[in-house]
Amino acid sequence: MNNLVFHDSLTMHYIFITGGVVSSLGKGIISGSLGALLEASGFKVTCMKLDPYINVDPGTMSPQEHGEVYVTEDGAETDLDLGHYERFLKNNLRKEHSITSGQVYADVIERERRGDYLGATVQVIPHITDQIQNKIEAVGENTDIVLVEVGGTVGDIESLPFLEAIRQMRMRVGHKNVVYIHLTLLPYIKTAGEMKTKPTQHSVKEMRSIGIQPDILICRAERDLMEQEREKIGLFTNVPTRAVISVADVDSIYKIPLVLAKQNVDKQVRDHFQLPAQDKPVDLTAWEALIAKEREMTPGPRIAIVGKYINSKDAYKSLIEAVKHASITLGKETHIEIIDAEKISDKTVDSIFANFHGIIVAGGFGERGVEGKIQAIRWAREQNRPFFGICLGMQLAVVEYSRNVLKLPDANSTEFDINTQNPVICLIDELQNRSDNEPVHMGGTMRLGTGKDHLSPGSKIHAVYQASCIAERHRHRYEVNPDYIEPLEAKGFMVSGRSDCHGYVDVIELKEHPWFIGCQFHPEFNSKPLVPHPLFIGFLQEAYKTKTSQSMEAT
Ligand code: GLN
Question: Among all residues, which ones are annotated catalytic?
């Protein structure tokens, strides 16, 4: 690929993506897809997100409401959109790529206390808006184009300082170096049989009232826009018809880079930035091949994801995507169901899982649903059903084995029972000094971000990775208590991965089980559609074997 790098010109190029009409239009997916398209056109691209909430980061926000907390390699707890960006882009992101109002205000207040603004009245404009621009400028080293997604919807009070900051950015870095993209919805009114353009017109009007004229409009709708509809929208919003882009609902989000390419969005961006024409055509072959593979999938296994956030598809976003990536690679369409852990008991467990070929117990915090997850793990262990425990899922596999095989009925994690006589999972501090009833602080005490692990030769996990040393991302406070490793291992349990630092238990497996693996890290954060994760591939392969052997038994 032609390696165009323009950063030596000292001018950075920015694309700001705002949303209008309604939320949940998939701004993150559009931003990531546009990033993938621009990468395929030879640019060095990165994405960042500006979130208007006051929380310093989403680490303490409920996944039920806000979706999963995504973790970057350098250990930032971020908005799930960073997961979309990383899945679409080649390069991974850092802490600085996720900015919240809370962070901006905290910085400005700290500087004010330090006396940096002595004499001045500290105000939203210019102090907050300047700090936002400084943070945007801090990203993008070694990059040609920074795509900046502004969270929220135009018209929200909260996003105003961000919109003002991005308006000013154009003056800061020059008109031609900034592209504004606005994403809107065209609702289809059944009774009129028409797609309505009015909300889009109003949304652009709102943008213009704060001084931003979108250069490109991306219109989400149930079906593709017709030429007259694009012309009409263009006329009312002052956007050239060719820059009114139609993105209809698609069955796979990984088609979006191709949808944008077909309408020459990359060329329009290049023209706006006045960058030289490419000497090679855009190379989207990897994405095309992925889509072709996805289209040709045959029925695959049924997988249960046991969790407690059941009404939010976004709470397990990276996990679900990681399963999809592995499914596409194997050419087997996986049926995924989220199972409510609170509904699982010794009475219901058989009927709930009988029709599944593999069980994933997801990560999580807090006691709700824990006993149901333990029931699911026991069932998978006793029925020889492929089991994959992630973070809390691994910790509960240790609890389950200790209770039911080591016969320690009160074995638990101190997260759920601070007084247990058998704290098989506990805080590392507690190992040194179990001075109980100390409150656990909710910030800054976690093992966060990428860490290295050593895998035991001859183990299942070693065979899965085909490597002795791996690097994966963590987000947890509790660890396996080393006092219990010996008794556990004497009964068929195996510690097959340990952290490079401190030798913490990071992978467990069962010797006498076809596929029972638990990991303390989150492999789902390292899975991309074009680079699927070996653990998910290994798990699905085994689940597919279970499916085939079951159907053979049935015939
Ligand atoms: N609650 C557990 C811990 O803090 C597990 C966290 C998780 O699953 N991400 O260690």
Answer: 391, 522, 524
